[in-house]
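User: Please fill in residues for this 157-position structure.
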């Protein structure tokens, strides 16, 4: 009986610890010698919304769009408030393209102009959005490789 209680307590401690560390930013993307905590978006609705409507993005944060297959996934700046660096990564997490300092799209009042869609020159599997200037500050170039640091990688990706 004591053995079962001890095993149960150990399971509770391990699960609690895992949840604690995951809540403290267990999902990171490292690139160019810097790591950012990322919010991972995988559903169509969450990818369409992205960072829309947010007034700011902390310097150590980003958003990682995850797609089921390779494609030339487009990004737009509709209803955005913050300029971004957008970095496209292939299935091997290699940078295939990027746009630095992508500005928010604000059409003139009464205009029917649509937000432009930016697409990479090569197929990608992931898109990383970070604050504008991140790529320049960290010397990120096409061909660099990112690493994903997850506490329970199989659960997240």
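Assistant: Residues filled in for all 157 positions:
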């Amino acid at each position: 009986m004591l053995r079962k209680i001890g095993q149960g307590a150990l399971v509770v401690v391990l699960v609690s610890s895992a949840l604690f560390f995951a809540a403290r930013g267990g999902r990171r993307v490292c690139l160019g010698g810097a790591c950012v905590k990322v919010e991972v978006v995988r559903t169509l609705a969450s990818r369409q919304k992205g960072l829309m409507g947010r007034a700011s993005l902390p310097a150590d944060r980003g958003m990682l769009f995850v797609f089921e297959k390779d494609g030339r996934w487009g990004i737009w700046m509709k209803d955005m408030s913050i300029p971004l660096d957008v970095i496209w990564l292939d299935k091997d997490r290699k940078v295939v393209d990027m746009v630095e300092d992508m500005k928010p799209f604000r059409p003139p009042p009464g205009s029917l102009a649509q937000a432009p869609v930016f697409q990479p020159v090569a197929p990608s599997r992931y898109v990383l959005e970070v604050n504008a200037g991140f790529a320049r500050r960290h010397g990120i170039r096409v061909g660099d490789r990112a690493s994903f640091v997850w506490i329970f990688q199989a659960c997240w990706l």
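For context: The helical segments are 2-23, 44-49, 134-137, 153-156.
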